[in-house]
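call fold(seq) -> C-alpha coordinates
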Amino acid sequence: MSYLLVPARRTPRILSQVASLKIGHRYLFSCAEDGTVKIWRFRSTDALQTATLSYNEAVSSLCLLDTAKPGVPNDLTGLHAVAGLRDGNICVLPYSLKSQWLQGAMWQAKIKAQAFPGGEPVTALQFTHRLLRVAGAENYARRGTCPSGIATDTIKITS
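ret:
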Protein backbone atom coordinates (compact mmCIF):
# COMPACT_ATOMS: atom_id res chain seq x y z
CA MET A 1 0.00 0.00 0.00
CA SER A 2 1.43 3.40 -0.93
CA TYR A 3 0.56 6.84 0.42
CA LEU A 4 0.92 10.30 -1.02
CA LEU A 5 2.18 12.94 1.38
CA VAL A 6 0.74 16.38 0.76
CA PRO A 7 2.24 19.43 2.50
CA ALA A 8 -0.13 21.25 4.84
CA ARG A 9 -1.52 24.60 3.67
CA ARG A 10 -2.60 27.50 5.81
CA THR A 11 -5.85 28.02 3.96
CA PRO A 12 -7.98 25.11 2.80
CA ARG A 13 -8.47 24.74 -0.94
CA ILE A 14 -11.98 24.21 -2.20
CA LEU A 15 -11.87 21.59 -4.90
CA SER A 16 -14.45 21.09 -7.59
CA GLN A 17 -14.80 18.47 -10.28
CA VAL A 18 -12.91 19.12 -13.49
CA ALA A 19 -15.13 18.87 -16.57
CA SER A 20 -12.51 19.12 -19.33
CA LEU A 21 -8.75 19.29 -19.86
CA LYS A 22 -6.94 20.56 -22.96
CA ILE A 23 -3.26 20.97 -23.78
CA GLY A 24 -2.14 23.95 -25.84
CA HIS A 25 1.25 25.56 -26.39
CA ARG A 26 2.89 23.58 -23.55
CA TYR A 27 0.21 24.61 -21.02
CA LEU A 28 -2.73 22.75 -19.50
CA PHE A 29 -6.19 24.33 -19.62
CA SER A 30 -8.99 23.15 -17.35
CA CYS A 31 -12.64 23.98 -16.76
CA ALA A 32 -14.55 22.95 -13.68
CA GLU A 33 -17.94 22.86 -12.03
CA ASP A 34 -17.08 25.90 -9.91
CA GLY A 35 -17.50 28.08 -13.04
CA THR A 36 -13.78 28.66 -13.68
CA VAL A 37 -11.32 28.15 -16.51
CA LYS A 38 -7.65 27.89 -15.53
CA ILE A 39 -4.24 27.83 -17.19
CA TRP A 40 -1.63 25.59 -15.56
CA ARG A 41 2.07 24.99 -16.04
CA PHE A 42 2.89 21.27 -16.08
CA ARG A 43 5.45 21.49 -13.28
CA SER A 44 3.40 23.59 -10.88
CA THR A 45 0.53 23.00 -8.49
CA ASP A 46 -0.82 26.55 -8.66
CA ALA A 47 -2.78 27.95 -11.60
CA LEU A 48 -1.08 30.67 -13.64
CA GLN A 49 -4.38 32.33 -14.59
CA THR A 50 -8.01 31.89 -13.55
CA ALA A 51 -11.15 33.26 -15.15
CA THR A 52 -14.43 32.99 -13.25
CA LEU A 53 -17.22 32.80 -15.83
CA SER A 54 -20.15 32.10 -13.53
CA TYR A 55 -20.82 31.80 -9.82
CA ASN A 56 -24.03 29.82 -10.40
CA GLU A 57 -23.38 27.62 -13.46
CA ALA A 58 -20.74 24.99 -14.12
CA VAL A 59 -18.38 25.19 -17.08
CA SER A 60 -19.07 21.92 -18.89
CA SER A 61 -16.87 22.03 -22.00
CA LEU A 62 -13.75 23.70 -23.30
CA CYS A 63 -11.88 24.06 -26.58
CA LEU A 64 -8.86 26.05 -27.68
CA LEU A 65 -8.70 27.90 -30.96
CA ASP A 66 -6.14 29.91 -32.85
CA THR A 67 -7.47 32.64 -35.15
CA ALA A 68 -4.01 33.88 -36.16
CA LYS A 69 -3.44 34.62 -39.81
CA PRO A 70 -2.31 31.58 -41.80
CA GLY A 71 1.31 31.58 -42.87
CA VAL A 72 2.53 33.76 -40.01
CA PRO A 73 4.89 31.62 -37.89
CA ASN A 74 4.79 32.01 -34.10
CA ASP A 75 1.86 34.44 -34.24
CA LEU A 76 0.26 34.13 -30.79
CA THR A 77 -2.15 37.07 -31.11
CA GLY A 78 -5.22 35.01 -32.00
CA LEU A 79 -5.30 32.58 -29.09
CA HIS A 80 -8.71 31.98 -27.50
CA ALA A 81 -10.28 29.55 -25.08
CA VAL A 82 -13.98 28.89 -25.66
CA ALA A 83 -15.97 27.57 -22.71
CA GLY A 84 -19.49 26.14 -22.72
CA LEU A 85 -21.68 26.60 -19.64
CA ARG A 86 -24.57 24.51 -18.38
CA ASP A 87 -26.97 27.41 -18.84
CA GLY A 88 -26.47 27.29 -22.64
CA ASN A 89 -23.98 30.16 -22.93
CA ILE A 90 -20.55 30.08 -24.50
CA CYS A 91 -17.76 32.43 -23.43
CA VAL A 92 -14.73 33.43 -25.48
CA LEU A 93 -11.58 34.19 -23.50
CA PRO A 94 -8.60 35.63 -25.39
CA TYR A 95 -5.30 34.79 -23.74
CA SER A 96 -1.60 35.47 -24.11
CA LEU A 97 1.39 33.32 -23.27
CA LYS A 98 3.65 36.25 -22.43
CA SER A 99 4.92 36.12 -18.86
CA GLN A 100 3.66 39.64 -18.01
CA TRP A 101 0.10 38.63 -18.90
CA LEU A 102 0.29 35.23 -17.19
CA GLN A 103 1.54 36.81 -13.96
CA GLY A 104 -0.60 39.89 -13.66
CA ALA A 105 -3.48 40.39 -16.06
CA MET A 106 -7.16 39.98 -15.22
CA TRP A 107 -8.49 37.17 -17.42
CA GLN A 108 -12.07 37.86 -18.44
CA ALA A 109 -14.48 36.71 -21.11
CA LYS A 110 -14.43 38.96 -24.17
CA ILE A 111 -17.81 37.75 -25.37
CA LYS A 112 -20.61 35.79 -23.72
CA ALA A 113 -23.45 34.64 -25.95
CA GLN A 114 -26.40 32.24 -25.82
CA ALA A 115 -25.57 29.15 -27.87
CA PHE A 116 -28.93 27.41 -27.60
CA PRO A 117 -32.40 28.89 -27.16
CA GLY A 118 -34.06 27.78 -23.97
CA GLY A 119 -30.84 27.37 -22.01
CA GLU A 120 -29.92 23.87 -23.15
CA PRO A 121 -26.53 22.94 -21.62
CA VAL A 122 -23.47 23.09 -23.88
CA THR A 123 -21.91 19.65 -23.61
CA ALA A 124 -19.22 19.68 -26.30
CA LEU A 125 -17.15 22.20 -28.24
CA GLN A 126 -14.80 21.47 -31.12
CA PHE A 127 -12.79 23.77 -33.37
CA THR A 128 -11.47 22.22 -36.58
CA HIS A 129 -10.81 23.63 -40.03
CA ARG A 130 -11.82 27.12 -38.86
CA LEU A 131 -15.27 25.85 -37.80
CA LEU A 132 -16.62 25.93 -34.27
CA ARG A 133 -18.99 23.09 -33.51
CA VAL A 134 -21.25 23.45 -30.48
CA ALA A 135 -23.28 20.50 -29.22
CA GLY A 136 -25.94 20.32 -26.55
CA ALA A 137 -27.52 17.61 -24.45
CA GLU A 138 -30.44 17.26 -26.86
CA ASN A 139 -28.12 16.14 -29.72
CA TYR A 140 -28.62 19.51 -31.34
CA ALA A 141 -25.47 20.77 -33.04
CA ARG A 142 -24.62 24.09 -34.61
CA ARG A 143 -21.83 24.69 -37.03
CA GLY A 144 -20.45 27.86 -38.54
CA THR A 145 -17.49 29.32 -40.35
CA CYS A 146 -14.64 31.25 -38.84
CA PRO A 147 -13.09 33.69 -41.35
CA SER A 148 -11.82 36.20 -38.78
CA GLY A 149 -12.97 34.72 -35.50
CA ILE A 150 -15.71 32.35 -34.43
CA ALA A 151 -19.17 32.11 -35.87
CA THR A 152 -22.11 29.80 -35.43
CA ASP A 153 -25.66 30.17 -36.72
CA THR A 154 -26.50 33.19 -34.58
CA ILE A 155 -23.26 33.87 -32.71
CA LYS A 156 -20.59 35.91 -34.44
CA ILE A 157 -17.35 36.63 -32.68
CA THR A 158 -14.44 38.38 -34.34
CA SER A 159 -10.92 38.72 -33.06
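The chain has a mean pLDDT of 77.
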